[in-house]
């Protein structure tokens, strides 16, 4: 494994798995990584926990940091929320999440 690079898997809305490499030294988050691979994640609010367009389901059993109050509030208003829902923009790319698997949540109305 290259230094400062982790592997994450994103399952898109068609069920196709994408194995992505993400740098841990660029202060990126999952929303930004998805966008950089041109996966259909809008990230409308730019990662401020204000839009829920980066809503994902965490499929692997990684221990992620607890959601902030802002994230919880946003998820309260999002559609199709499950117990493993998170905002992708609030998942920081660090070594702790190496091997993370997330699935893109459906977009509103689909
Ligand atoms: S990009 Fe808007 S909540 Fe994550």
Annotated CATH architecture: Roll
User: What overall geometry do the principal axes of the alpha carbons give?
Assistant: globular
Number of strands: 5
Main sheet, how many strands, which sense, barrel? 5 strands, mixed
Share in helix? 10-25%
SSE order: EEHEHEE
CATH homology group: Beta-grasp domain
Strand order of the largest sheet: 2-1-5-3-4
**Terminal Cα separation, in Å?**
38 Å
Number of domains: 1
Provide keyphrases for this structure.
alpha+beta, 110 residues, single chain, Ubiquitin-like (UB roll), globular, binds FE2/S2 (inorganic) cluster
Structure description:
The chain is 15% helix and 23% strand. With 110 residues, it is α+β, with helices and mostly antiparallel strands. It has one domain (5-104): Ubiquitin-like (UB roll), CATH 3.10.20. Strands 2-1-5-3-4 form a 5-stranded mixed sheet, covered by helices on one side. The longest helix has 9 residues, at 69-77. The radius of gyration is 13 Å and the shape is globular. The termini are far apart. The structure holds FE2/S2 (inorganic) cluster (FES). The site of FE2/S2 (inorganic) cluster has 15 residues, from loops.
């Amino acid at each position: 494994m290259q230094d400062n690079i982790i592997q994450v898997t994103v399952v898109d809305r068609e069920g196709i798995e994408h194995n992505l490499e993400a740098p841990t030294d660029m202060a990126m988050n999952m929303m930004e990584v998805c966008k950089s691979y041109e996966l259909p994640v809008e990230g409308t609010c730019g990662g401020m926990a204000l839009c829920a367009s980066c809503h994902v389901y965490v499929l692997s059993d990684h221990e992620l940091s607890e959601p902030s109050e802002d994230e919880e509030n946003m998820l309260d208003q999002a559609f199709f929320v499950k117990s493993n829902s998170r905002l992708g923009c609030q998942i920081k790319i660090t070594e702790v999440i190496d091997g993370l698997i997330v699935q893109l949540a459906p977009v509103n109305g689909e």
